[in-house]
Amino acid sequence: MKSIFKLYFKLICLSCLLLLAGCDDARQNSEKAVQQPVLARHQDRFGRYDSIGNLGGKPVSIPGGVVFTWVRYIGDPGDFDSSKQAQKYQRPPITYQLPIEGFDFQYRLTDGAVKTRREQTEEDYLRDNETLIPVGKPFPWGYTIVYNIVDPHQPLNFNKAFTDTQEAKKEVWHFEYFEQPQKVHGLTFFKANNGIDPSTNQPWQDNIAGPDILMSKNAQGEIKTYILCDFVGEVQQCSHRFYLDNLPILISITYNRQYLKLWQQTQKNIAGILDSWVVTDKGALIKKQAGKV
Q1: Which of 127, 168, 198, 247 has a CA 20 to 30 Å removed from the CA of 111?
Q2: Based on the structure, what is the number of domains in the chain?
Q3: pLDDT at 37
Q4: Distance from the first to the final alpha carbon of the chain
């Protein structure tokens, strides 16, 4: 009988110990939950949440109606990656510290506006598509992609890109690029084979292999702006890439060549747009966000 009482006594003591341990764990978990920072997630007037993450080393909150397709994060598998590894991939929790890989939006070159879904700018964009493009008039919108540079060893200039372009043209197309005596809108201007088609020895007007190259260097000789413009057909396009001065970010924007003259203002405006999306570490807004009414 004494042994049974001893067994009951031991079980009761063990239960009490487990109960105390459980209470202690619950208290610690509660304290941890309190210590976890509460993320501020902002919405627009339609209830769409901003996309958040880290861009160029800074926390950002990008209005949901602005992003043209979607925001990609570092480590995300490719859009068409059907491998087992991609299927098993689980993205870490999205915070203001999770590095963004890139995202895209539409920018209006004439006034620096950002297209936002369900706002006036979207109506403008659709109207311009319907009325300007069919008749060959300059389309004032540029498709913009923002790339995050997370590799600290990646050069933030286009010096190698220019060298590689020249070498490739010599090897494949057997022509060279020559710097022109006059700048264009303040940009150093290079023409393929001096604008002469080597096969006909006539002015080169209809070959996509040798787009015009325009560039701008800083005081250290780094190419910070690198623009390729075609000259084929009535609608001529420019592919304009540039690095920001204060952040490791690469911007690429494609637009009608008629708006090349706005290249400096375009870079300044886009830098301002990105800066308007920078927030505090906990997500508090600092400035009025571009693209949000």
Answers
A1: 247
A2: 1
A3: 53
A4: 80
Coil vs helix vs strand at 108: strand
Q: What does the pLDDT read at residue 98?
A: 97
Helix (H) or strand (E) holding 61: strand 58-62
Instruction: Give me the pLDDT at residue 3, please.
Output: 45
The pLDDT value given to residue 30: 41
The set of residues, in sequence order, having a beta carbon less than 8 Å from that of 279 and lying 6+ positions away, is: 40, 59, 60, 61, 96, 285, 286
Residue 195 lies in a domain: yes
Given the structure tokens 């600290």, which residue do they identify?
152
Phi–psi pair at 213, nearest 5 degrees: -115, 130
Q: Give residue 75's region: left, alpha or beta (phi > 0; psi -120 to 50).
A: left
Query: Residue 209: which domain range?
Result: 159-247
CA nearest to 254, candidates 265, 239, 242? 239
Is 205 part of a structural domain of the chain? Answer: yes
Gap between the Cα atoms of 49 and 46, Å rounded: 9
pLDDT, one tens digit per residue, over 174-196 is 889 999 999 999 999 999 988 88
Distances (CA, A) of 1 to 12, 13, 14: 17, 19, 20
| Residue 80 resides in a domain | no
- Does residue 138 lie in a domain region? no
